[in-house]
Amino acid sequence: MTLYENLANQLEESIRSGALQPGARLPSVRRISSSRGVSPATVFQAYYLLEARGLVRARARAGYFVAAENGEVPQPQTASASGENSVELDVADRVFTLLDSVMKRNIVPFGSPIPSPALFPLPRLGKSMAAAARTLSPWATVDEMSPGKQVLRRLIAARYAVDGITVRVDEIVITNGALEALNLALASVTRPGDAVVVESPTFYGALQAIQRLGLRAVEVSTHPHDGLDLAALGQAIARHQPKACWLMPTFQNPLGCTMPEDRKRELVALLALHRVPLIEDDVYGELYFGPRRPLPAKAFDREGLVLHCSSYSKTLAPGYRIGWTAAGLHADAVKRLKLSTTLATSAPSQLGLARYLAGGGYDRHLRKLREQLAHQYAGAAHAVARHFPAGTQATRPDGGYMFWIVLPEGTDAVELHRRALAQHVSVAPGPMFSASGQFGNCIRINFGHPLDARAERALEQLGKLAAQLVPG
Amino acid sequence: MTLYENLANQLEESIRSGALQPGARLPSVRRISSSRGVSPATVFQAYYLLEARGLVRARARAGYFVAAENGEVPQPQTASASGENSVELDVADRVFTLLDSVMKRNIVPFGSPIPSPALFPLPRLGKSMAAAARTLSPWATVDEMSPGKQVLRRLIAARYAVDGITVRVDEIVITNGALEALNLALASVTRPGDAVVVESPTFYGALQAIQRLGLRAVEVSTHPHDGLDLAALGQAIARHQPKACWLMPTFQNPLGCTMPEDRKRELVALLALHRVPLIEDDVYGELYFGPRRPLPAKAFDREGLVLHCSSYSKTLAPGYRIGWTAAGLHADAVKRLKLSTTLATSAPSQLGLARYLAGGGYDRHLRKLREQLAHQYAGAAHAVARHFPAGTQATRPDGGYMFWIVLPEGTDAVELHRRALAQHVSVAPGPMFSASGQFGNCIRINFGHPLDARAERALEQLGKLAAQLVPG
Prior knowledge:
Two copies of one chain form a homodimer. Chain A is α/β, with parallel strands linked by helices and 472 residues long.
């Protein structure tokens, strides 16, 4: 037996014995190389062998992970057809009905848009908030209404800098969560009647905003692995002269996919050529499973055309409603719109959060959170592989807490949603994410909640219900 | 000398000696009657005599007050002409320029829209907030996103009930301050192109919202004493078929005037007849100088057509950004619009405020605040009487912290604003409050800040600058 076979067999034993759980990251090549006294090439060969045996799989930039024991469902490989037309919308009702249902605590929340609030350091955050509230000075309650507290904007700008992204403190506007940031950004760069490019499928919040502002949605197909189709985007720009793109290039909601960085660079160059502002939704950017944060499109923006939107709601402080946009050229317009719509963001919330961030501990919390989400993903993917009908495909996100399941052709996801809800399980059916009602056989699954026994059973129930709905 | 002359002379002596200061409220008729052992009729006669001597003045429902020593400037008696046309707007720039200037701390803030943040019980509120933040449960961060925390909505409904106003808990939606409530209310009942009735002069926030939503403003003249001209409103309804009225019937911003309750009742009946929703801005309603809260129009609404909007920003908790609307028939629409624009209001802010309110002390704080504002008003009115040019008129608010000064015909209020700002004093010039740029000789004065020596001097400066601008 060669060195690398020997190493592969030892690792296989660890996996089969359960010492390395499905979803766990294997030690880095460098670490094994030094601890076992073998060359990095030997380690690579061992990992390749394990991959060939179906026991581990590689994820771009993230290293090797233990595969789900019964194998995995295949990834969907084709993007949806791009809408050639712009579409007027009526998405409100189906979305609100869903939101109502998923917020009930007796429902297993696979359809929920939020991760479990139990994943966050609320007691420590509460202490920071308490200290900020007790020492709040009278003038601090009314200072810097819009763009928001400078102390917080500085902390946000510093974090961009650490990630190698240049953002000026004075282009940051603090908002009531990312949703307000995205809405203000869109309203700041459009007028009623304008066309706006969205992904297909896309976050339904984008469709609601487009509908409310009297805009037209242009859907551009988005690949379940690589993200937005740039050739289709080019055609859509030529055909519709959109006044904005609203995109989520990292850990896209609902697909979970991420555009590779070179494609993000291309995207920004293409939009710059046509002077189309990019509203970049990056609320999951910090929730990566790999070794570093995927750069947002904002990192490649040289002209101030990217309005980068994010928040602490998914990473640290749900319910505090603190988000922001780094809005480039459009920062003043966003700031003014904020002043005349909601005026300001809660001062104690802003200052409490700033105090927590300044005190350290955010990175430690994030590392734990990312590990937990990666672990939950592995568990959910595993259960889907075990329980869902043959022919099911699923995306393989490298971050965030959503993945996208394509059921066998003709399976009615809206009916699945209904039947599941009757059994106290929610899923988000595909048509919620499309202006034109596509994705009738798709569902979005939220793996942001611990996969306890009840949730495991719920995935089994879902698989059975789906199997009943497969035509023929 | 009769009994009442004797009593009047004693009181006059107290006033002349300074024992009773300008702006102070005289003891109630009942109290004097019992303490002096004279009949109530005698006390009334004494007060009438003092009024005739120009030493005291009566305020509706509020009792008698010591007049400013040099007399007072007369009240303006005529309303502006009603705009017969609806108007497209461009108010943004002049408003934002003003807001930028008044938020600077080195400026004497007579043009500011907010009262002094030093008037609020921030340390006690901070303790409630601290306790709420430390005990915030994970699910409380994401529960009841919209319409907002039930514990807070119940407290708000209970307060309406105490004031004799019937409001259901489930028609209340918590918002990021009253400004969001008003904006959501307007967007919920209109579509682009609709006409909306506003007062003339009106709060500029209404004009900004109308402009942003692509609506048309119909200005209806508003009397400096009695409020909106109901006959003119009837004509405006017939001519323009407005889809909403946005009004401030109590302590109107900028006039400071209040519609008598019987006229509010008429207003609601007129709007009900034509099924026109009323967006009622009542943010100063708790800041009355008289013996009780003036009833809002909402109190007379039997059909759910009044969307009553208020907040804690002006009465208790500036910077916390907690407001609400009791939106009647339109509550669901408002709730949904909130969900898709800013999602929710800061959970710790809501729960901190609820904890403060439940703990008692709000009423005691409000009594102190009202007295302080009444006192500051008397001081400011006195200084205006002393320092402003002959021919100046001023409204006499019974609450809130704004009054309206009409300078002699032809005096340029915008130029006054500019020259004052150069001397580090702000005023809000009249044209800010008009879609059609009326009120060129008017200014709004904020008396919500303690009238210290610097502020006194600033009013003297303002009077001198105004005198220089009175034409020939």
